[in-house]
């Protein structure tokens, strides 16, 4: 998606753009699987910060985004099912409504605790929005390694302990009182993006702030329709596409990028923009990825079904160990996100689709081992059904996708989750020209400002602004 976004922007600025794609189609991780009249997104299923793609539509053509795709807010934003039987529905883009829902589910005062944390996430957003999301990575990125989360003043005996660096788990323990439901809610935002809440900076509170402030959106026909729309915009701007053409290396002359070598030969260029993943390295620590189960369901979507349901882990500590500790067993009942869109275009009449997703280790697990993927998928479905979703008995068929599939199709090392940049994460976010080769820019999930549909769109905008008109 970053390549499509950058191509459409640069072609609009007058450049002659050629896109080389290793696969047979466009869109990268925003893929699609079709069978027997059923259709599924194989990558992200929901959109946050649609303003990124509204800006793309505005800057590259006359039609606004809403004329290119059918965009609708998801309401309620999500339903959360907890191990103790608590059933919580959160409204979309309503901070006050979220607080009321939490009070009703967890007791009076729960909403105030949560909203205080999210308000601190707003402070993080205001401090980092421009330098971390909208501007090129500075020559000295060390200021971004500081976490702007406003740690509350310590009282009592706590003042005698060293302050140290707060993690998201510290926020849950110290500001949410360790409440298991609120903790699970906060940790799920990190886990969904491949962050370990025990090590993620407290500034990760920006994730629930963004979601609850700017809303969550669905594209009719699935998010693949968004990739279709940006691809059409590229075609209108006469971008040339070369599919089944794998990038091999950047060609340099006199210390400057002057083209690329591909599986189909060399291509000369004045500027090279690379949206490939970071090089794979030997890893001895688990790398988070995703296991996705595509379910074709018999029968109509039940009335009142929520678009997004999260069934939280039965044993959160065991789940974190299984994902982030080398050699630890995978959780029997992991956190499972279930997407069930009310979208007739995705299935035959009288049926329904469901997409189940769980964060799981990508590195350190052999997902190609016979039966490994199906065993974990069985756990995911059983956990969802134990919470009352009733999916297994209605399943016509299923397809299980693991990090091994992600790696094969997208080139992401180990099939890892492309993570968003977070202030305080001390990650190495790339935005070129690189020092070794001026004229070579990096975009996409492995570049500044990190992974996710919104951020890869931002990386394309940053690169286009750096390159400028032809």
TrEMBL record:
Residue intervals of the Amine oxidase domain: 1-282
Single annotated GO MF: oxidoreductase activity
Domain of life: Bacteria
Name of protein: NAD(P)/FAD-dependent oxidoreductase
Source organism of this protein record: Streptomyces kaniharaensis
């Amino acid at each position: 998606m970053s390549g499509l976004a950058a191509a459409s922007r640069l072609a609009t600025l007058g450049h002659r753009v050629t896109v080389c794609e290793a696969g047979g189609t466009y869109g990268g991780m925003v893929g699609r699987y079709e069978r027997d009249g059923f259709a599924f997104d194989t990558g992200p299923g929901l959109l946050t910060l649609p303003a990124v793609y509204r800006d793309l539509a505005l800057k590259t053509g006359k039609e606004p985004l809403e004329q290119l795709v059918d965009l609708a807010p998801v309401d309620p934003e999500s339903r959360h099912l907890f191990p103790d039987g608590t059933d919580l529905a959160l409204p979309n883009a309503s901070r006050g409504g979220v607080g009321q829902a939490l009070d009703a589910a967890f007791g009076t005062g729960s909403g105030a605790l949560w909203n205080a944390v999210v308000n601190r996430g707003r402070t993080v957003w205001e401090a980092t929005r421009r330098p971390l999301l909208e501007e090129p990575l500075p020559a000295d990125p060390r200021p971004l390694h500081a976490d702007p989360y406003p740690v509350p003043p310590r009282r009592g005996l706590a003042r005698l302990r060293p302050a140290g660096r707060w993690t998201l788990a510290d926020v849950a323990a110290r500001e949410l009182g360790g409440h298991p439901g609120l903790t699970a809610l906060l940790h799920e935002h990190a886990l969904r993006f491949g962050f370990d809440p025990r090590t993620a900076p407290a500034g990760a509170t920006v994730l629930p702030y963004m979601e609850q402030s700017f809303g969550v959106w669905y594209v009719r026909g699935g998010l693949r329709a968004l990739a279709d729309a940006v691809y059409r915009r590229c075609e209108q701007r006469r971008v040339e596409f070369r599919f089944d053409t794998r990038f091999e290396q950047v060609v340099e002359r006199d210390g400057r990028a002057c083209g690329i070598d591909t599986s189909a030969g060399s291509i000369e260029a004045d500027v090279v923009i690379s949206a490939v993943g970071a090089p794979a390295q030997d890893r001895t620590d688990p790398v988070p990825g995703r296991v996705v189960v595509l379910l074709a369901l018999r029968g109509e979507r039940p009335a009142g079904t929520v678009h997004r349901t999260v069934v939280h882990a039965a044993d959160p500590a065991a789940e974190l160990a299984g994902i982030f500790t080398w050699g630890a067993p995978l959780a029997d009942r992991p956190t499972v996100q279930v997407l069930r869109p009310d979208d007739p275009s995705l299935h035959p009449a009288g049926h329904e689709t469901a997409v189940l997703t769980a964060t799981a280790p990508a590195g350190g697990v052999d997902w190609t081992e016979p039966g490994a993927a199906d065993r974990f998928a069985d756990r995911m479905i059983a956990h969802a059904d134990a919470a009352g979703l009733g999916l297994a008995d209605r399943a016509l068929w299923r397809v299980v996708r693991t990090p091994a599939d992600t790696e094969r199709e997208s080139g992401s090392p180990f099939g890892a989750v492309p993570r968003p940049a977070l202030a305080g994460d001390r990650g190495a976010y790339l935005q070129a020209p690189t020092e070794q080769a001026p004229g070579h820019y990096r975009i996409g999930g492995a570049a500044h400002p990190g992974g996710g549909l919104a951020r890869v769109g931002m990386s394309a905008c940053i690169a286009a602004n750096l390159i400028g008109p032809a």
